[in-house]
Prior knowledge:
By secondary structure, the chain is an alpha+beta fold. It contains five helices and seven strands, in the order αβααββββββαα.
Amino acid sequence: MKRSIIMFILLGSFIGWVFWYGDTLPEKSKVSMSQSFMHSEKEIRELIFNFQLYPKWRENVYAVKKIPSRNNYHAWQETDGDGRTTTYQLLEFKQDGAATEISIDVMGKKLQSLGHLHFKIVGHDDPPSSELTITRDKPIPNRISRAVDKLLSQGTGNINAYFSSISNKFTSDMRREKKHPTSQKNIIKPTPPDTAPAATGGVPAPGASTGTSTGSTTKTKTTSP
Length: 225
């Protein structure tokens, strides 16, 4: 009996603490993380912008379907491994020199906004590399949901999935290139022998020497690029 009472008190205390902790967190959660890649800004930008190729490299994205857009940018729907769908609407695409910013609205089944994803890519020339910063903000009105989201993943689960997918994509590409190199060495064909007809009647053949041979030989060196 005492054990049951103690367990009930502990459970009640934990639930009360979760409510209290969730109440201390802002209703709008905002998390930002950055990661550097030894790849150009253009490569990162094209990965994020070309949503139709997401199933080939993004984790837990099994299908993508283009849908009608609310603006001049693209809109699409993603299906995960459990068959759940999420709708995305591109809100902004801005380039300024070696920096690109992409903003995407994340929506639920009823097209209600579930928050935004903001990508900022800054390229560097020496060495060729880029830094990707992903910011995710979403409203979490429920106090328990805010606490659970913060405790389980620190709100970074979706961002980490993007970073992991991009890293795996580049690693896979590198292994594929090593296994099947795209460039092959140029094959130098031997120069065909001189087929000019022999001289007749003391008349030299075209291109033949008219003087006495001195024994010198001219060598041609072919260097493969």
